[in-house]
Amino acid sequence: MNLSRSRKKVGIGIPCLLIGGTEIQTVHLVNALIQEGYGLTVVCYFEYDPWIVNKLEDLGAEVVLLKWTRGIPPFRFINSLSKELKKYAFDIFHVQYVAPGALPILAARLAKIKKVLATVHQPKTKSHGRFAGLILKTAARFCDSFLAVSKSTEKSWFGSVQLMDSNFHAEKIPAHCTVYNTLDTDWMDQQLSSRPDQPISTVRPFRIGTVSRLNYVKGIDILIRAFQLMDEKKKLQAELVIYGEGEEEARLKKMVADFGLKNQVHFKGKLNPSEVIYQTAQLDLVVVPSRFEAFGLFAAEAMYLGKPVIASESFGLLEVIQQGETGMLFPVEQVEKLAQAMECLLENPDLRISLGQKGKISVKEKFGFHSFQQNIAKLYRLL
């Protein structure tokens, strides 16, 4: 631990602390910074889940729950957050750039915090509208550095890429850069080892599955349609297991009923992160059919567990999976291509084993926590 850095106080601002990819990455960021000797306080503006709050506190972070409502006017948000931040005298404030977007950055500057960082977790798409890029680039001018979770995400907003990795050498902090998301593989191993092995019956159906928020972006409707196409051929007995909840749940269940698949498609509800690991380990094949995905945390988790993964060719997933080597990819929204990929892996057990083995090695080398901690430490030292 560097004692000079141990006196530095870091605040992390985040809209909510629910169970999702941004929140899990916030846990990893807190863990990395605490191990580097920084004092950590996480400031949550809106909703929260006790599981995530407890996880952060167990790591040694202070968690401030403001419990504001989402309808708070922008100027009131900036002024109120600025007053809160002044109480803590942060040396560095790190904003998770999720709606309300630029407002916490302005609040941090109004509070006269010396160094401000931000991380964007979603790529720029048409759905963001005309001014989203202008707003983010303007916000970036108020930051010492603006991070992205994948190269494709960084390029979508800034037009160029600077990857923070072992080859990065600079004397000053870059205006923007990519720091890949990470997996805590030691924790994943611990979760699996703490549960008794569940024998897998050789006579049960082949189990295809996914863990996802049930919204339009995650493309679960694409997966259901592809499964229906594959089921029509009746080549192999298979079932589809879907974990998660969201605004699309009722529509997706109706789709399953209309296809006559209620006996083959099972909605299992929301899982906490430790259950995600265990239940994913029970699957034979994992599918990530997202319409867009900045990184693809669940795909990487499944790969580390040795599962063959099929994912869409969407932004960060192209950086997680190497086609035909560590997993399989299909064009976004191409239902028939996804069905063909699932059929291919159902019929080729050797290929499933090969993809699972190579995928695990790739994820551990590229997205392991040790590399992430080194990259975050390097970035913060440049401040």
TrEMBL record:
Residues 205-360 form the Glycosyl transferase family domain. It holds the Pfam family Glycos_transf_1. CDD domains: GT4_PimA-like. It comes from the Bacteria. Gene3D superfamilies: Glycogen Phosphorylase B. Residues 19-155 form the Glycosyltransferase subfamily 4-like N-terminal domain. InterPro entries: Glyco_trans_1, Glyco_trans_4-like_N, Glycosyltransferase_grp1. PANTHER family: SULFOQUINOVOSYL TRANSFERASE SQD2. This is Uncharacterized protein.
